[in-house]
Amino acid sequence: MKKFKFNKKSIIAALTISFAGTLLGPVTLLAATAPVLGTNSTYGVVSSTYTGNVAATTITGNICYTSGPGTFAPTIVGGTLTTPCTSGTNGTPQATALTTLNTQACTAITPVGGALDTWVIGSNPAGTFPPGCYAVTGAMTITTGTTVTLDATASGGDGGNVWVFKSTGALTTGASTAGFPSVVLANGASATNVFWAPAAAATLGANFAVSATPTFVGTIITDAGITLGHFANLLGRALDFATTVTTDANIITVPTTLHVVKLVVNTGGGTAVAGDFNVNVKLAGTDVANSPAVGVVTPGRSYALAAGTYVVSETANPSYTTTFSGACNSSGSVTLAVGDDAICTVINTYNIAGTSGGGSSFAILPLINLTKVPSPLALPAGPGSVTYTYVAKNIGVVDMIGAWVKDDKCSDVKYVSGDTNTNNVLNVKESWTYACTKFVSQTETNTATAHGQSSGWDVYDTANATVVVGSALVPPLIHLEKVPNVFALPASGGPVTYSYLVTNIGTVPMSDVTISDDKCTGLPTRVAGHPGDLNKNDLLDTNETFQFTCQTNLTKTTTNTGTATGHANGFTSVDYSSATVIVAAPGLPNTGFSPESGRNISIFAGLFAISIFYYIVRRKQTV
Amino acid sequence: MQLKNMSKRTLLIAALVGVALPAALQSSVKERTMLPAENIPTLSKQEQVSFGLPARLKIPGISVDDGVEQVGVTSEGEMGTPKGPVGVAWFSLGSRPGEVGSAVISGHYGWKNGIPAVFDNLYKLHPGDKLYVEDENGIITTFVVRELRRYGEHDDASNVFTSRDGKAHLNLVTCEGVWNKFSKSYSKRLVVFADKE
Questions:
Q1: How distant is the Cα of B121 from the closest Cα of chain A, in angstroms?
Q2: Do A211 and A273 belong to one domain?
Q3: Is residue A310 located within the same domain as residue A445?
Q4: Can you give the residue range of the structural domain that contains A223?
Q5: pLDDT tens digit string along B150-160?
Q6: Is residue A328 domain-shared with residue A369, that is, in the same domain?
Q7: In this predicted structure, what is the pLDDT of residue A620?
Q8: pLDDT score recorded for residue A7
Q9: Is A609 touching B (CB cutoff 8 A)?
Q10: Which residues of A touch B112 (CB under 8 A)?
Q11: Which of A9, A145, A481, B59 has minimal Cβ neighbours within 10 Å of its Cβ?
């Protein structure tokens, strides 16, 4: 009979397996909400006491301390040193962020223990975490020689792209060989959206040699002290306004993020979707990491970058015109400063009449607008039922047939009301209401699309909405309606004035409202002092409407897209509205001359010559 | 005798005024539009990265090598035409030659006093013939004739000025058909459709 022998290794392995944390089966993870860092977003280090040991630490970003710097002052790149830290700039924003982190509901990974690298969530490998908020009772650790992977596409994710790890104890990572990371990002995860909030001290393990790549990722926020081991490389921030940040020949880089959002406008019959386009982000002509990649609709794809000027481009689809909106200029160029968290929207507009043709006809395109409102916007107690209400409105000047509304994450959208004359036609100024109810188990952003048709032209409008699960923080919801004053112009073109109505259809006031148009200049980048701000608080409240106009001269058929953004509770809401103005084709030119015109002139000239001849002869005869 | 001498001189003047001058004009036009074979530009080596305003149209097959004017829309809602018999006119409210879309260039068919015009022989083009447009930066774009099509003078010309295939086209337009002395227009329009090579 064969006997099993147990040695030390097998015992350790068995223990490891038995103690590994596991959240199997259909996992419901609670959503993570990113805290608003405010003015601390540009700081690599905030501390009461800063200590630099062994050799200088290189900090890309700002640093502040009240006491310091110990033996070695930091080398600062792209930032400044402020001493002391101030309550207004550093203390209060940190306290606000900590409150956000500490009050949100998280998925508990107790009682097994806080060795994150051993945890298995759903079908993911051990140590791979989908986006979400995780809470550890006691200390959370990452074992020496292991790596925790934050994977935006890992199964069971909350639908967002934020990771929060908090513990009632310390945060400790093991020492490692050079460059071996404790934490890595995967599949679009962004260092900007990773947060660590230990109640006790945070200690990052030492490395045997300096590492060119990060060994730890995310923003550490605590009031209990942060120590970076020798040569640790942090892509994030060390924020400890109350006590000490200790460094030791480290590299600390404040994450700078570019979110690239893809929007496809299919008015006129296009069928492409965001994923059909390959998008590049380049620095000095060279693709950055994870570029190129297929396009992603709101909230887009995130790139962790260094400060600098980048160019967003894409593999052109000849049936679509590419324009840029948001932080990118008209050429797709965007300049990022340390700590920036910028959004660049790449808009593809279907070429209704060729990219720059003179126009197809005087047929007027219809214009549809969609609003989408979830109720509720937040499920603080966890997963629950949400009803989405959609309103498709004919804001053009021609009636539409074939109206429908679809939602990418709510399959049972049903017509409710609005066709008052029951003619099955979405008449001018009519608004049709639709609804869909679903069980939302994790924070998600879904996109609804409204469609209408007239004279063979298909038009669409989209609307996004986010529902937060596991947090009382309510996301904002902005709406944009854009209408041109004319829908068709003669062949010579002419001026067009676009009107924009920006409204708050959510429940929380929005700050930093912006409005832009990819083909009409003059709109305010950031709205301030608008007469529609009734209470003069520089916020877009739910009872307020910001109205704008923009005039441009069109010489060819043009589809342009307006973009409105607003912010609240750490979320950003974006809405788009497109409109097409047709410029008619001219008549064919009249390039001919009469075939007789030359002969007539010749005859005339001949008669003239004969007359002169006759006159001269007569004169001579007379003489 | 003096009378005979005078009559010869007068006849010579008459000939000059009535016949020789138009002929001389015609001759000068012919000489200008003839393009020696060795003057055909080298085309393939020039990479196109952007498209400036069109400057010259070259069609070796029918000896066209002429400057490009810019025109818009007339008060009748028609595309404009070049000022004289030897120039061509690009519709500046549309695509530039080489850009995605349909660029359109017009030229005259016939001129006063029997003077030949730039597109007199446009009908002689065949599918496969090449057209060249040189822009203001010296960049040359090549187009290949796809088809010739006839339109009525008031036909809808949407597909001449627009395209939906996402490609670059160059369409040449001139008159053809029967002259209507009342409308002062030919009955047809000849359009040569060409695609960027």
A1: 13
A2: no
A3: no
A4: 12-253
A5: 998 888 888 89
A6: no
A7: 62
A8: 39
A9: yes
A10: 593, 597-598, 601
A11: A9
User: Does the beta-carbon distance from A491 to B101 stay under 8 Å?
Assistant: no
Nearest to B14 among A319, A358, A609 (CB): A609
HEC assignment per residue over chain B: CHHHHHHHHHHHHHHHHHHHHHHHHHHHHHHHHCCCHHHCCCCCCCCCCCCCCEEEEEEHHHCEEEEEEEECECCCCEECCCCCCCCEEEECCCCCCCCCEEEEEEECECCHHHCCCCCCCHHHCCCCCEEEEEECCCCEEEEEEEEEEEEECCCCCHHHHCCCCCCEEEEEEEEEEEEECCCCEEEEEEEEEEEEC
State the ipTM, two decimals. 0.74
Confidence bin at A286 (pLDDT 50/70/90): very high
- Is the CB of A619 inside 8 Å of chain B's CB atoms? no
Q: What is the pLDDT of residue B23?
A: 39
Whether residue A108 is predicted with pLDDT greater than 80 in this model: the reply is yes
Q: Does A557 touch chain B (CB under 8 A)?
A: yes
The average pLDDT across A342-357 equals 70
Do residues A267 and A223 both lie within one domain?
no
Domain membership of residue A141 (yes or no) is yes
What domain count does chain A have?
4
Q: Label the pairing between strands A286-287 and A278-283.
A: antiparallel
Same domain, yes or no, for A135 and A19?
A: yes
User: Are residues A299 and A402 located together in one domain of the fold?
Assistant: no
User: Would the CA dihedral through A282, A288, A291, A296 be positive or negative?
Assistant: negative
Question: A273 and A223: one domain?
Answer: no
For position A112, what pLDDT does the model report? 55
Copy the structure tokens of residue A420.
């008052």
Contacts of B162 in chain A (CB under 8 A): 353-354, 357-360, 557, 585
Q: What's the average model confidence in pLDDT over A195-213? A: 91
**Of A55, A94, A48, the residue nearest A226 (C-alpha):** A48
